[in-house]
Amino acid sequence: MIDLRSDNTLGCSPEILESLTRASRGAVASYGNDPITERLRERCRTIFETELDIIPVATGTAANSLALAAMSPPWGGIFCHADAHIQRDELGAPEFFTGGAKIIPIDGESGKLHVDALKRSIEEYGSSGRMLVPAALSLTQATEAGTTYSVNELRELSELAHAENMLVHVDGARFANAFAAQSRSLADFSWRSGIDVLVFGATKNGAMASELLVIFRRDLTDGLTRRLHRSGHRFSKMRFLSAQLDSYLENDLWLRNARQANEAAGTLAHGLSELGIEILRPVQANIVFARLDPATSSRLSSSGVSFYDWPLFGDGAVRMVTGWNTEPKDIQRVIGLAATE
Ligand SMILES: Cc1ncc(COP(=O)(O)O)c(C=O)c1O
What we know:
By secondary structure, this protein is α/β, with parallel strands linked by helices. Helix content is 41%, strand content 17%. The chain has helices spanning 14-23, 35-48, 60-71, 85-88, 93-98, 115-126, 151-163, 175-180, 221-230, 239-249, 253-274, 294-302, 328-339, and strands spanning 2-3, 53-57, 76-81, 102-106, 133-140, 167-172, 197-201, 211-215, 278-279, 287-291, 305-306, 308-309, 317-321. Strands 2-8-7-6-5-3-4 form a seven-stranded mixed beta sheet, sandwiched between helices. Strand 12 (308-309) and strand 13 form a beta hairpin. The longest helix has 22 residues, at 253-274. Pyridoxal-5'-phosphate (PLP) binds next to helix 3.
C-alpha cells in the first residue's frame, strides 16, 4: 500500500511522539502557562528574529477561523483565492467565527492570487463602503495547487493590502513545504513580507494534531486569546500541543520532514512527465497534480497506490500528495507501475 491521498493520512514523527511522553511527566501550570509553551515561544522568537506571540491550536480550521475573526469585523471582507481552503473546505467556519464576514473568492492561475486581480476585487467590493469593509487578505502557502508564493510576490500582495488598511493572514498548513522550497530566512518569508498572522502548520508534516498561530501584529493577541477560550479551543493541558510543536522545531525536524516530502514530489513529477504524463500544475512543494488515462489510473489503484481524483482540474486529473515519511523506493514503484503497459 502506497498512500498518496493526503499528508493527513500519515502517522506522527517518532521525535514528536517521544516529546509527548516527556511532556507528560510531572505537574505544570495549565492553559499555556507551562515551561514547554514558554520554551516554544522563545524558540519562535529566535527563529523568526522578532518579538511575537504564539497560540497552539489543534486544527487548521480553528486556527484560520480564529485568526480571521481577530482580523475582520462581521461586516468585513476577506479576500482569498477561489480555491482557498477557508473558502472551499471549512464549511463556513471563518464566516461563523467572524460573525458573518464575507469571503471574496478571486481566480488566479496555479492556485495563486495576483496583485492586479486583488486590486480589481478590492475596488469592486470595497469602493462604495456599502458592500463591505476590506479587512483581510488570506493567502495559502503552499497553495492548494501545490505552488508557492515567492518573497517578492508576498511583499507585493501585502503592500497592497496594507495600503487598503487590511491585515494579512497566511494559511500555512503546508508552510514548511513552501519554506523548504526556497532559500530566504524565516523572517523574510513571513513578517518582513508583511504577514501579520501566520498559521504555521505541523499536523500534515509529522505532528499528531497541532498548528501554531504565530502573531506578528501583537495588538491582535488579546482578542485572539479571548476568542480561543470562548470557542472552546483553549486547551487546559496546552503543554501537549506545545510539546509537539517544540520538538517539531527542535533540530530542524520540520525542515527535514518537509524536504523529504518535497523531494519525493519532485521525483514523482519528473518520473511521470518522462513517461509523457501531463503534470497539471508546477510542482513547488509536496503535491503533484497529473492527468492519468483510465488504464494507468486503475493499474495504480489495483496495485495498492491510493490517491484522489481531482475533477476540479479537469478530466482524468488526480492529486498525489507526498509526506514526511514517503520513501524514495515507493515513488520509484509508482513510476514503474505508471510505465507498465
Ligand atoms: C490548505 C489547508 N488549510 C487548512 C486545512 C485545515 O486543517 P484541519 O483539517 O486541521 O482543520 C487544510 C486541511 O486539509 C488544508 O489543506
